[in-house]
Amino acid sequence: MQPGVFQAKRKNGEIYYRANITYLGKHISIGSYDTEEACNKAYLEAKALLSDPQIGILSFSVKKNILPFNKYVSLINYRDNHMYIKTPIYLQKNYFNYYIDSKTILKFDNDDLFYYSSHKIQNRGGHMFVSDYGMQYNILSRYGIKPYSIKGKDYLFANGDETDYRYSNIILVNKYHGVSKEEKRGRVRYVAKIHLNGDFIVGRYPNESTAAIAYNKAVDLCKARGMTKKFPTNFVSEYTPREYADIYTEIKISSHLYKFFRNKNFREA
Fold first, then answer.
1. Which sequence spans correspond to the domains of the chain?
2. What DSSP element (H or E) covers 129?
3. What are phi and psi for residue 268, nearest 5 degrees?
4. Which of 165, 153, 15, 48 has the alpha carbon at shortest distance from 104?
5. Which residues, other chains included, contact 264 with Cβ-Cβ below 8 Å and sequence gap of 6+?
6. Average pLDDT of the chain to the nearest whole number
7. What is the model's pTM?
8. Which side of the chain, N or C, has fewer Cβ within a 10 Å radius?
9. For residue 153, which phi and psi values (nearest 5 degrees)?
10. Which residues contact 31 (CB under 8 A, 6 or more apart)?
11. Taking Cα atoms as reference points, which of 184, 180, 210, 174 lies closest to residue 193?
């Protein structure tokens, strides 16, 4: 066998080849290949990466490289930072880069390193998500951003860089569904709206959590009046269950909403 190459056998009896390399005392699997020649080329490429600090991530080329891009990044990060990570992460001083591909690079705080070192980010038409326990989770959900949130309205990137997912760069504008901030004459209020035949104002409230409860109460009213439309509801973490129940009972919602349902000819939007 050529250097770094080990022969193996699949369950169906087919022969294939595995490449491995040892660096800084760590035994690293490089991958599986159908031919001994390809496997040896992958080993030699990994050896060159680990021994030559002049080779950077930007040197990767789909046409000339045998190693898959993820492994390419992992090896360079291990060479430079002495930490082997299976996912395509490169450590910086106070944050890390996650390489979706050679042109799409996301930035995260080090607080997220443990999570993303074991969860691969997938990109489907600009939708970034990870798979966890058989479910797909948008990476924005880690910031409390809901799936229906709208960029520019419900959340913002402080520095304008939409690849920068560091916590200081994510500004959550509207935390709850159906709630938006309104400022008039220097006074800030939070407006709760529900979509019936167009947006229907439930009311204006002093804080967003109270407005979120008012929205939930409006949803409950719609269901009680026979609407079958599926409305998303808010989980309000600021209050205990008892406090939530007290606010829910006392909070007032627009009387026009009750009038809306007194009209027997209403149609669901």
1. 1-81, 85-173, 179-262
2. strand 127-132
3. -70, 140
4. 165
5. none
6. 91
7. 0.76
8. N
9. -115, -50
10. 18, 19, 42, 67, 68, 71
11. 180
